[in-house]
Amino acid sequence: MSATADHAETSPAVRLGFQPEQVVQEIGYDDDVDQELREAIEEVIGSDLVDEDYDDVADAVVLWFRDDDGDLTDALVDATTYIEEGGSILLLTPKTGRDGYVEPSDISEAATTAGLSASKSVSVGKDWSGSRLVTPKAAKTKK
């Protein structure tokens, strides 16, 4: 993988739909996040992730969420207020057997309650799984 293009094509950030020049807001950052994934996203978008204090609208949100972080539905509803219409939320939760694991049924229920459509879960690192969540309007335009 010496060529940058080869790296970009296999980058988890590209597979997750991140694109150059997007503004991506990160919520739920802590010491346990996957730094390689964060760096891959920043490499694709060409800038740093913006934090929870960012006061403008983002193209996408990366939400790190653990079982003891509170109510997932509330976190998703809050995250939708930060994104452009048609934007997406990448919900990252610890994998099965890891501290803070969130049941897939809980993710599905919270996404539906928050008015989002969930894609299938994908592995995004050693310890984290990701679900790409989109607003129904965005989901319809993708067809």
What does the model show?
There is one protein chain. By secondary structure, this protein is α/β, with parallel strands linked by helices. Helix content is 33%, strand content 24%. α4 packs across α5. It starts with a helix and ends with a helix. Residues 1-8 and 138-143 have low confidence and may be disordered.
Beta content comes to 15-25%
Shape: globular
H-E order = HHEHEHEHEEEH
Mean pLDDT, nearest integer? 87
Largest sheet geometry: 6 strands, mixed
Helicity, as a percent range: 25-40%
Gyration radius, rounded:
14 Å
**DSSP strand tally:** 6
Number of separate helices: 6
Instruction: Give the distance, in angstroms, between the N- and C-terminal Cα atoms.
Output: 33 Å
Low-confidence stretches: 1-8, 138-143
- Return the structural class: alpha/beta
Task: Tell me the layout of helices and strands.
Layout: H1 4-10, H2 12-15, E1 24-27, H3 35-45, E2 58-64, H4 72-80, E3 83-94, H5 104-113, E4 117-118, E5 122-123, E6 128-134, H6 136-141
Parallel strand pairs: 1-2, 2-3
Antiparallel strand pairs: 3-6, 4-6, 5-6
Helix pairs in contact: 4-5
In short:
By secondary structure, the protein is α/β, with parallel strands linked by helices. The protein has helices spanning 4-10, 12-15, 35-45, 72-80, 104-113, 136-141; strands at residues 24-27, 58-64, 83-94, 117-118, 122-123, 128-134. It starts with a helix and ends with a helix.
